[in-house]
Each structure stands twice: as C-alpha cells, then as structure tokens.
Amino acid sequence: MKFRVAREVLAEAVAWTARSLPPRPSVPVLAGILLEVEGNQLSVSGFDYEVSARSEVDVQSTESGRTLVPGRLLAEITRALPPHPVDVVAEGARLAISCGNAKFSLPTLPVEDYPSLPSLPSTAGTVDSDAFAEAVSQVAVAAGRDDTLPMLTGVRLEIEDDLVTLAATDRYRLAVREFAWRPETPGLSAAVLVPARTLADAAKTLTSGPEVTLSLSSGGSGEGILGLSGKDRQTTTRLLDAEFVKYRAIMPSESSSFATLPVGLFTDAAKRVALVAERGTPLRCEFTSGQVTLRAGGTDDEGQAEERCDVEFDGDPLTIGFNPTFLLDGLAAVHTDRARMDFTTALKPAVLSGVEEPSGDEGDGGRPAERAGSYRYLIMPVRLPG
C-alpha cells in the first residue's frame, strides 16, 4: 500500500474515525484503524462490534492494499504533522509516514484478525444535516447516563411517514422533538432505540454535507443496526434491545398556568442564583404576575441568593422548585429567544417549549405563538422544604 494525501484531509478523516474507538478495547485489534486503498480512494475505518465509522478520501495512489495501525497514535501523529503532503507506505509489519522533514514508522496490527465492518442497512430516508444535529442535541441532553438501565440511555426514534419523533428521558426529565424528513418509501413506520451518546456524536459530526441519510434494518427494532451517512462519512450503531417508557402518557395534556420567559435573562439569573445551591438542593421559583423570584440556599451554614426577573405569567401565584442543572439544560436546548413553561401544580411536571415571534402583524395581538409541538422538555419538580 502506497499513497500521497493532503495533511488536512488525512488528519480530519483519521480524527473523525478515532472518535469511535473504544477506550478499553476487549481485544487489541479493536484499538486499530483500518486503512484501505482501492484505486485512488482511501477508506479509514474503525469498529468495536457496537459502533462502526468509515471515512473516505481521495488520494494519489501507486499501490492498493490494506493495513491496521494503532488508531489513537495515528490520530495524534496526523494532527501534529507539518502542513505538507503526506506520503504513506506499508512495508511488511511497519507503516511509514513522511511529511516534509518529519518521518514516522509505526507497528501494524494483524489485519487478518480485524472484524468485517457491517454494511449499511437499506436506506430509510434523508434529513437536512443541520436540522438533524439540532434535534438530536435537544433530546440527547435528557438521556440517562446509568448503563445499568439501558432503556434510559437511548433515544427513541420513531418514524411515521414524513415525520420523525425523537424522545429521551432519565426519569427526572423528558425531551421530545419532532421534525419533518424525506422518507425513501411513503407510509414508512418504524420505532427503534438508539444509544444516545453514539447518536449525538454522529449527528454532530455528519454536518459536512447538506443532508444525512438514515438506514434501518427491515425489522425496525430489536437486534438490528442504525446507519447514518453524510458526505464521505458513514457510521453504524447497534440498537438497544430494551423497552422504552410510554412517554406520551407522561406528557401533561393541559395546564392551569404558564409563564413566558426571556430565555437569556432568565438563564443568566438562574445561573447566578444557583451558585449557592448545594448539590441536590433545589432552585426555588416564585411566579407572580409579571415576575419570577429565584431563590437558593437559606440555611445558616450555606450561602443565600435571590434575584427577580420580569416574565409574563398567567395564572394563580405558584412556587415550584427545580434541579438547577436540569432546568438550565432545558433552557439551553430550547433555541428560541423566549420560552413557555406550562404548570399544573407545584408537585407535578412542568413543560418547557420554545415560542416563535409572529412575523409582521400576524398573531394574537403581537403575543408569541407556541412552536407547533416541535420541542418539549418536561422537568420534574423538586419538593421544597416546608
């Protein structure tokens, strides 16, 4: 195997593939990155039986072939090379890398022991890459981190014709996002559970092209895989074989009061007040007409903070407590200048959603209109002392 390639192109392909390498591989070869040259195409791949990643780049090749090299070391080297073309040659059990005056020789791993990468399932449809990345990031923030509860570490991906719904929960909050897409086959229906961390990382890094293609196995659930591909990159992940919670039954269908919040001002105030909130203690929110008072701390042996923020509030005065981290995560995920928070009682979940400003003189007297169910973030309240 012998080829020449631009340093930036090689470094980017290797770095993207190396992101999916396992930190503690079960067998040594899974720490490797597979380099394959066919014609003038270089494929840079990684696979750990759960997640696969493949990036393809154009090279000037004089000899085709394949070799397996330590992945993280290769990523560090290619990132540090000077800005000159890179010559790569596989010679026996070594890989030689030359770039300007820099030369490296790396040991190779037994390529015959490396597992075959899974093929992409059949194409299900496509979605704009930026819209997909935004939707996944908004939902994945609510996924659980406890691997002993696998059903809570995933993002539920539901397809109903031209509508995709993503949902995730860690039992203390629930995020749901809907968006339109272009299905390959009209009337397509599927529901799968995808590992949240893998999905979030893939969605964030597949934005080099205008759209992302989703591929699903025909079964649509269970032991299948999900494929995601963009320009010159593709990744697969094994689906979680677990039952997701019936989240639609959790989402309140009505509210007794609501507040319209200026997201930037409210977020800044909440961050300041939360500075004195000890771990596990709530941020107290007292809603009255035209304002909310935020409080934290209050005992003799800890700090205290209080700040008022102007909001629009419709309903009877309400005092409710939230985990400050969960509240701030939801505010950061709304992605609008103003947000609406709906309440039923101080002990029942509140629902945060974005609002869009009406264009021109449309709308109800200039009041913001709730975004049409596209993003909702449910947050469980914390019982306040006393």
From TrEMBL:
Note whether S-adenosyl-L-methionine occurs among the keywords. Answer: no
Gene Ontology biological-process entries: DNA strand elongation involved in DNA replication
Q: Does the keyword Secreted apply?
A: no
User: Which parts of the sequence belong to the DNA polymerase III beta sliding clamp central domain?
Assistant: 127-244
Q: Which residues form the signal peptide?
A: none
| One of the record's GO molecular function terms | identical protein binding
All copies of domain DNA polymerase III beta sliding clamp N-terminal, residue ranges: 1-118
Q: Where in the cell is it found?
A: Cytoplasm
**Xref: Pfam families:** DNA_pol3_beta (PF00712), DNA_pol3_beta_2 (PF02767), DNA_pol3_beta_3 (PF02768)
What SMART domains does this protein map onto?
Answer: POL3Bc
**The DNA polymerase III beta sliding clamp C-terminal domain covers which part of the protein?**
249-358
Q: Which PANTHER family match?
A: BETA SLIDING CLAMP, DNA POLYMERASE III SUBUNIT BETA
What is annotated about its quaternary structure and interactions?
A: Forms a ring-shaped head-to-tail homodimer around DNA.
What is the role of this chain?
Answer: Confers DNA tethering and processivity to DNA polymerases and other proteins. Acts as a clamp, forming a ring around DNA (a reaction catalyzed by the clamp-loading complex) which diffuses in an ATP-independent manner freely and bidirectionally along dsDNA. Initially characterized for its ability to contact the catalytic subunit of DNA polymerase III (Pol III), a complex, multichain enzyme responsible for most of the replicative synthesis in bacteria; Pol III exhibits 3'-5' exonuclease proofreading activity.
The record's comment on protein family reads: Belongs to the beta sliding clamp family.
> Protein name, please?
Beta sliding clamp
| Organism, as annotated | Modestobacter versicolor
